[in-house]
Every structure is written in structure tokens, then in C-alpha cells.
Amino acid sequence: MASLPAHYFWSGQPGVTAGLTLASVALTGLTWWAGRSTTQQRRLHSAVTVAAASTWFTAAAIAGPAAGPLGELYFIGAPALALSWNIRQILRKNVDGPAANADGGFLEKVGLAKTQVLRSEVGPNKASFDLQLPRGELTPDDVSKNITRIAGALDVPKTAIRIQENPDSASRVMLTVVPLDLLKNTVPCPGPSAPGESISFPVVVGIYEDGTPVTLWFPGDPDAARNAMMLLLMGMTGSGKSEGGLTALAEVLTRKDVVVWASDPSKAEQTLGPLLPAIDWAALDLPSTKAMIEALKAVIPARTAWMAKYGYKQWVPACAEVQADGSPGMPYLLAWFEEAAKTIRETDDDVFTGIAQEARSAGVSLVISMQRASGNQVSTDTRASFGSSWVHGVRSEQDARFALDDEVLDAGAAPHVWKDKKPGYSYLVANGIADDRWATPLRDYLTSVDYLHWVVLTFASIRAQIDPVTAGAAARAVDRAFTARTRYPMPGTTNEPETAVRHGHVPDAYDEDDYKDTEGEYADYDRRPQFRHDVQDEDDEGEFIDASEELPEVEHVVQFATRPPDAPAVKLTTAQARAAMEELLEEFEDEGRDIVGPADFMEHCDRHGRGRSWVSGQVATFVMAGRLAETNEVGRYRIVPDSIAA
Known about the structure:
Mean pLDDT: 79
Radius of gyration: 39 Å
Strand content: 5-15%
Low-confidence stretches: 94-101, 500-547
Number of strands: 17
Shape: elongated
Strand order of the largest sheet: 6-5-14-13-12-7-11-10-8-9
């Protein structure tokens, strides 16, 4: 509309014509200059729009808006220019394809300039971004080096950022951000994942941050091309390493075809104590630990020879069953060495290397647990023989590199950030675990002592016994260190541990024929007396006394106060003792108590004549039956009315 008064006042004036023409050129140039900070397409579009509009106005002001084609150009060109800008505005938000600066400059700030976001997925507590790196300029290593900057820019901990390389392209990576820590609350063990099943089923030990169960696969699987697990369990003091190991062992001890040998020469019964009755051989000092290692060296070739005889290339569940010729089966063998650093230090830094290299085909898994697998404790060959690592909090990044590969650390795994501040947090790099899970934090299940007692008691009837081949090889190798090994009583019994020799007694020589019957089988490999007090040691008799010599004459008689008669000892059968426990629970309920614990039952121990371990086992039974429910306080349980529990 401005062209009409302009034509009325300026038509026929050559100076105005020149001025309008110069103004059009100046406006177009200014637009081009001002658009230098924007994209090339927007800059050109803006300059063309200004040039077209100013040129039409100049012509209309001089000749009139209706002169020649000016009218038609106005009604056609003006709407076309306006629509072009509307279309451009719509296309600015194209979510289906890559868009420059779609991240608002964030990637440029963290050192990833020119990187494009190809695809994104956003969940309740997880965001994943498929990044296309500028080819020839950035690599996945550059992204890994900038994890700290990315975490700082997003205001999240470093462990919340993970990088996964694209296996098909070295210029693409997946960036995952988990802003909230969903593992901060303790996760109690929900119970056995496959009670009474084979050890070939996965062993569940915790949960990942997205709630997915964490699994360990001990035996190999020829169909899945998976080798038997050789596991390095590592974590500093206070990181929850031992508790995680107990969770795994408790799960293993619910299976029907596995035998456990365990060693702890440093803490003895402190760590393994609740599970000792279910462990076939517990070596709780250094001499017996050395004997166990020697036994394993002899057991491996004996087991592989047996499997070759029956046509097995590696252990499968069928190995544990009775064979076609009537021979007993061979359970899987798990050898677990707690505080292995002391064992290595007192023997040799390569003591486990040969076992780890040869055990895979023998149906044997080896686990060594230690605080720090440094080079001066564990040889490079030993670490290379352990294909799986379960790493809890460690003191430094260098410590983490002893157990985790560089690509796992580059992907975001950072156990050195936790140290001992987050017990139970860990990373698992193991056979059967997908690569994209290796750098994902997890938290171990927490198992109470009562739960461990329940596992020992409940699955005693289905738990496998040592097979003759394995036992015979161990007996030949270390003699009574194996055949007279200590056996621990079940929870709830008052018997002392059964043993016949001091721990670690290994004779210098033995006769193999002592262990063979007429058919050549090692039938007498497990010769143990019933109880420790049945074994008489002549050294305990003191000075030799001639039994035929007359006693000396009495010279003095001392009269003490009259001793009251002993109260008759309470001797209840197991069924009667359990009934007494149930009566006590009903009495507590009648008294109006809501919270009880083992200590409350022990106050009335004269009514059932049992020790604390038996009482703890019965309390665990009440929990599993639903009569007691766990509370936030350790060792205290809420009474559930019988009508609700039923």
C-alpha cells in the first residue's frame, strides 16, 4: 500500500529514483551481512526476500503499482515469499532426520562439535542418544575422554554416563544417561531363582539399575559357545565383596548337581560360617588351603578322563546322572577361594594359573576373591586365565584396570568412584553377559544370616554328594587332609564339627592301595569318625600312669557345702522342640507383642533344649512360612497373625 503515496509524490523525479535504487541495494547487502552468524540457507533466503521486496517497491514508486506486470507480480510474488517462510518454520522441527544444532549447542560445549543426534530414546530414568561423529575428525575414544565433561554439563555423577560403540561403524556411538540412582536402597534377596534345579541354570545375584536380574553362568554351554566361568571377584574392604560372594554361594547351594569346596585362610569361619554345613570341603587355614589346591590339580585330569570315557567334551547336566553302565554321576565342582591374596602370597603368584587354564573342560569353576589383583600379587598369566570379573568399589582407577578391560572403563565403568561408600555396587564382566551390560552398574542382593541358615537346612536333602572319581583323586593327592576334613553340623543341632586331624595335616607319603577295594574303586575315600570327641589323642592323656598301681592312702578329707541335686536335663525331640517354638510364638502374640527376634526365643531356651543356630534356623522357617515378616531393623521380625499367614 505504501507504493501509492510514493508514486504520487516521487514519480518523475530522477534523484528519488536513484536514491530508491541505492536503498534497495544497501538493504539487500545489510541483510546478507547480518545473516553471517546463521546458516547459509537462512542467510540466502533472507537476502533474496529483501531484494525482491525492495526492487518491486522501487519500481512501483516510480512507474505506479499497476504499471506493466507490477500488479501481477505483487499478487503472485508476495504470497509466494510469505509461504516460503512458513514452510521453513515448519521444517525447523523435523524429528525424523538429523538436524544441525538440534542439541542446542550442547555437544559443541562438551568437545563434540559437528556431532549429530541421529536417534534418541527417552524413558522414565534413562535417555539414549545415537550419535553420528564427524567422519575423520572424532572417534569413540574422543567421546570416552569427555565423559566427565558430559556428566558435569548434565549435572549427574560420572557413573551415570555410559558409551557403547557401534559394532558396524567406528563413527557412531550410543550415549546413555541415567540421571537417578535407583540402586541406592538395599535390595534383599527375593529367594532362590531355580530351587532344586541344575547348576546349568543361571545364578541370580542382584539387579541392574533398570531392574533386570543379574546372572552368573558357571558351567559352559557348547550350544551357546560359552566356556565354564573362571571368576575374579574384587573389591576393597567395605565394598560388599564378601556379601556378594555369600549371595552367589547361597544360590549355588540350592542346586541339585553341584559340590562346593571353599577356602578362607584369613577370616576362617567369619565369612563362610553360616554356609559351612553345606560345603563339602572347607579349608579355613593355610595348610588345608594348600592341600585343596594340590587336590584340585589331581582332580582335574581324573574328571576329564571320566568325561572322555563317557563321551562328554565338557560338563553338562547329564554328567551328574547315573550313567548307562550304572556308574554314579559326577556333579559340577565349584572351588571358591576367599581372601586369595594370602594364599597367593604364601605360595606362588602363579598358583591358580594352571588350574584356571585346565579346569574348563573338567566341570570345575574357580573363583578367587581378593581386595586388589595388583601385579605384585597376581601374575599377568593368572589374570589372563580368569575370563570373568565381578568388581566392587576399589580405591583407584589403576586398581580397576587390574580386573576390567580398558574398553569397559572407557564405556563408563568407574568402580573407583564408589570406593567403600556404596557397598554392594559392582560391575560384572562375565561369560553369558551381553557386552552392553558390562559397564552397567548393578547392586548385589543382601542375604541375612537367617536366610543362609534356611538355605542350608531346606536344600540339604537334594544337595549333591562328592562323586567317587573326584574324591578318590583328592584322597590320593592329599590323603587325610581330604578324607578326614572337618564337617560342620547343620543349623539347629548341638553336635560339634566332625574332624579327625588338625587342619592341614598332609602326610609325606601314603600308599595308594590303602584307598582301593578289590575292584579298584576308591570306596573308602571318605573315612571320618562320627564326632570330634570320639577321637582319642594319646598326647592328651598327660603323664603315663600305671593302671595296676594301688591308689595312695587318703590323708585329708575336706567337706564342702552340700551340693543340690542336678535338675533333670531337658531333652526334646526335634518335633517337640519345633512345637515349643510355635507355642512360644503364640504366647508372644497373646501377650500383644508385635516385634520379636531370635533373642526373645533364646530367653526360653530351656523349653526346647537347642542352641542359637537352631533357633535362628527356626526363625528363618517362620519367615519363609509367612508367620514372621522382616522389618527395617536387623534381627527383628513382625509377627503375622496365623489367619493372614495361612
